[in-house]
Write a structure and sequence with these properties.
By secondary structure, the protein is mainly beta. Helices cover about 5% and strands about 40% of the residues. The longest helix is centred in the middle third of the chain and has 5 residues, at about 245-250. Bound molecules: copper (II) ion.
């Protein structure tokens, strides 16, 4: 990651992030995965509509790949957009494997009809946090109640493949329009990114075009979320593109953006407005009415000092959440979600895209995602159409929350 800073990890084809997989929508692909990770492993193709068996989640019936064995994933990529792939193994207490490791990469599904491509340059950046350690937050700082269990704290972070200041800068020219595809591939930390002196025009979230592309000063990406943004390079200089959190940035979460013929120390200023609101990218009208409404309440069972927190959906933890609920093909379902905990949760649906229909008390429509960040003690509603039969995993994308019960299976009747 930097001179003298080396992390030993597992990755794909010898690189972190793994190779960018550029696939064509509708064109079948075979991906041969050889498991030399040294532990049972499998790959989830995040954001794609795949048969449960190919999706890479054991809970849906996808096979695990034993150490030393291989498996060919055969599928037809859809839908078009910025997707990604990552380990979907259980990690438990081991902070070196699964999504704690370097097992992540971009998977871009190019549209069947070609990309309009109204940009001069494309830059892919994945964020990751490294060197996790189980800690009692209440021992480090005031905040969590004394009965809170262990949480993961990290000691290094990357946006791209090196610590901030140690990789090649992103070299740009004045007047260019740069498409950044950004991904939070951390195991358990939401991030907020800024590029001082520039704004991000968000054109897609989780790879899906938004109805109202809007310019914002910061990008909030919870675990597994993606944003496709256009940045007009109209402020010459050398800049830090990085986390608005000083600790994260000092851990390395950032990358230098350098204009042609400019040099010097990279500049950073913390943006004044760090608000993030999905609804600014949506439509004001209400979404279609659902056929059925399903309440989901997320809660924590504190693990106490030295213990691991457990997580529940409607009072139950995985595997007692199998099934979480049952759907009928073709019907539209509204999940009325209540995060009744002091932690943030990126809720993720496999094999289906959902529409955000309400954030707190604000109705919205048109923002299509596969992962939604639920801030602490917040509510949100999402709709999905049951159009992809097969067992469907629903879970928090925090590795430790998922491993400790925050998951359920949506079954088709
Ligand atoms: Cu969570």
């Amino acid at each position: 990651m930097a001179p003298g800073k080396i992390v030993k990890t597992t990755g794909y084809n010898g690189t972190v992030p793994g190779p960018v997989l550029r696939l064509r929508e509708g064109k079948p692909v075979a991906i041969n995965v050889i498991n030399d990770a040294g532990y049972p492993d499998l790959i989830h193709w995040h954001g794609l509509y795949l048969p449960s068996i190919q999706d890479g989640a054991m809970e849906e019936g996808s096979p695990i790949i034993a150490p030393g064995q291989s498996l060919i994933y055969n599928f037809t990529p859809k839908p078009a957009g910025t997707r990604w792939y990552h380990s979907h193994a259980m990690a438990g207490a081991d902070l070196t494997i699964s999504t704690y490791s370097g097992e992540f990469g971009f998977l871009i599904v190019e549209p069947a009809a070609g990309d309009p491509g109204r940009y001069d340059r494309e830059v892919l950046l994945a964020a990751h946090l490294w060197e996790g350690e189980w800690v009692s937050m209440q021992d480090i700082r005031k905040g969590p109640p004394p009965d809170n269990g262990l949480e993961v704290m990290y000691h290094a972070a990357t946006l791209g493949d090196r610590l901030l200041g140690h990789g090649e800068p992103i070299r740009v020219k004045y007047g260019e329009r740069v498409l950044f595809r950004l991904l939070n591939a951390s195991a358990s930390m939401g991030i907020t990114l800024a590029l001082p002196g520039h704004r991000f025009t968000v054109i897609a979230l989780d790879g899906n075009p938004v109805p109202t592309p809007t310019a914002v000063d910061v990008l909030r990406l919870d675990v597994a979320e993606r944003a496709d943004v256009i940045v007009e390079m109209n402020n010459s200089g050398v800049w830090v593109f990085g986390s608005t959190d000083d600790m994260d940035r000092h851990m390395g979460l950032g990358i230098v953006v350098e204009y042609e013929n400019r040099s010097g120390e990279p500049q950073w200023t913390t943006p004044k407005n760090t608000q993030w609101d999905y609804t600014v990218f949506g439509k004001s009208g209400r979404a279609a009415a659902p056929d059925e409404t399903i309440p989901l309440k997320f809660e924590k069972i504190p693990g106490g000092r030295g213990g691991y927190n457990r997580w529940t959906i409607n009072g139950k933890s995985w595997p007692d959440t199998n099934p979480l609920f049952t759907v009928q093909q073709g019907k539209r379902y509204r999940l009325v979600m209540d995060n009744n905990s002091g932690d943030e949760h990126p809720a993720h649906t496999h094999r289906h895209t959902f529409e955000i229909t309400k954030v707190r008390d604000k109705p919205t429509s048109g923002v299509m995602k596969d992962t939604i960040s639920m801030p602490r003690f917040s509510t949100a509603e999402i709709d999905f159409v049951a159009d992809d039969p097969g067992p469907t995993f629903f879970h928090c994308h925090h590795q430790d929350h998922m491993d400790e019960g925050f998951a359920g299976l949506i079954a088709y009747s």
